[in-house]
Amino acid sequence: MNKFDYMEKHGYEQIVYFYDKTTGLKGVTCIHDTTLGPALGGTRLWNYQTEDEAVLDCLRLSRGMTYKAAAAGLNLGGGKTVLIGDANTVKNEAYFRALGRYVQSLNGRYITAEDVNTGTKDMDFVNMETDYVVGLEGKSGNPSPMTALGAFHGIRAALRFTFGDDEISKYSFAVQGAGQTGYYLIKYLVEHKAKKIYFSEINQKHIDRMKREHPEVEYLTPDKIFSANVDVFAPCALGAVLNDETIPQIKALVIAGTANNVLMDEEKHGNMIKDMGILYAPDFVINAGGLINVYHELKTYNRDKAVREIERIHDRLLEIFEIAKRENIDTQQAAKVYAKNRIQTINRLHANYIKR
Ligand code: NAD
Q1: Are 283 and 262 in contact (CB under 8 A)?
Q2: What's the Cα-to-Cα distance from 101 to each of 19, 188, 201, rounded to whole Å?
Q3: pLDDT (tens digit, 9 = 90+) per residue, 273-290?
Q4: 110 and 158 both lie in a single domain
Q5: Residue 208 vs residues 27, 197, 198, 241: alpha-carbon distances, Å
Q6: Are 151 and 182 a contacting pair, CB within 8 Å?
Q7: What domain count does the chain have?
Q8: Does 97 share its domain with 190?
Q9: Tens of pLDDT along 206-261?
Q10: What is the pLDDT of residues 83-112, one digit of tens each?
Q11: Distance in Å, CA 259 to ligand 1 centroid
Q12: 258 and 185 in contact (C-beta within 8 Å)?
């Protein structure tokens, strides 16, 4: 991979490599675009087989963060850090403090948080060396209920756009995955008296929890969830679940859930869903609740304010659905147009000098 070509093609600002000789910490921070504000994105720890694999993952994820933050109306850019190592062996205080020092060296251009294989306890160590970290213990808390809350409001928007109202009690749902976010989404749907809810899971503990807490929510085996006869299919498990094989099975008229990168091929499968007359709520817009929540940690954290901002995912999605309809493009593409428009507009707004 020629990294400079890739950076030029996709508009990246910076790739930072770091290696700490005391702890063996090695990784990369990618800053995609800081037009709107400091680049924010979590730190992922993964045993990448090659350096290129790690850098490409970091580049891809940081770009995704730019659009996610822009579409969420936040004054943040997109960034990400990946650490190369085995999560079972490398983690300790010094390792994460070393990371904190690299984050600090970027002087606020990049703010980190937890991600795959890193948690709030690790971020507490990072915080000993830098102020540029969010998602800390005792601050904005677990992002999952907030991500699910945003998805809940996104589902309301998709129902309204498709059926003309968002009365949850009139509709039925199939939720794929009842882990952190799926569990809370189901809880909100139950509280709003959804007509019928199905769920699928592969983790027996999560199946048992659901059966115990919400016996009215019906279990379906993972292969049956796509073809469930429902109004809304909510992917809340893995990425790439919407593909050539699964999309034709879907009976729901709305696809809206918390999972990231659900379209295996954005363009192809975004169009396939559109052509079937199904409304797809773009993943990076509907699942931004956790990011919006953590963003509020940068000021004095106020839960009510964060919740109000998360509720705005509803109106934002309606706007994106309108763009898709007007331009006759799929909703994922419309969401990108929406995010890029905001970045360009704010960029132009800042073209003249105003003393502050
Ligand atoms: P999680 O691991 O807690 O839950 C996912 C659940 O899906 C697990 O319980 C797992 O057993 C189940 N699962 C895996 N494969 C399955 C299959 N084939 N069929 C049915 N169930 C299956 O993860 P999470 O935090 O709830 O995240 C879910 C998705 O949402 C991910 O794509 C994640 O990137 C995305 N997301 C999460 C957040 C957040 O705040 N946690 C924020 C934004 C996006």
Answers
A1: yes
A2: 11, 40, 40
A3: 999 999 999 999 999 999
A4: no
A5: 39, 16, 14, 24
A6: no
A7: 2
A8: no
A9: 999 999 999 999 999 999 999 999 999 999 999 999 999 999 999 999 999 999 99
A10: 999 999 999 999 999 999 999 999 999 999
A11: 6
A12: yes
Instruction: From the candidates 68, 80, 274, 336, give the one annotated as an active-site residue.
Output: 80
What would the two tokens of residue 57 be? 């993952």
224 catalytic, yes or no?
no
Q: Are residues 264 and 223 in the same domain?
A: yes
* Rounded distance between C-alpha atoms, residue 230 and residue 198, angstroms: 9
335 residue type, one letter:
A
pLDDT for the residue 98: 98
Residue 89 burial (CB count, 10 A): 8
293 touches ligand 1 (CB under 6 Å): no
Cβ atoms of residues 192 and 170 within 8 Å: no
Same domain, 97 and 191: no
Report d(CA 323, CA 311) in Å as an integer: 20
202 touches ligand 1 (CB under 6 Å): yes
Pocket test for ligand 1, best of 180, 186, 245, 285 (most atoms within 8 A of CB): 180
What b-and-e string marks burial along 130-159, b requiring 16 or more CB atoms within 10 Å of the CB? bebbbbbeeebbebbbbbbbbbbbbbbbbb
Closest of 82, 89, 12, 88 to residue 53, by C-alpha = 82
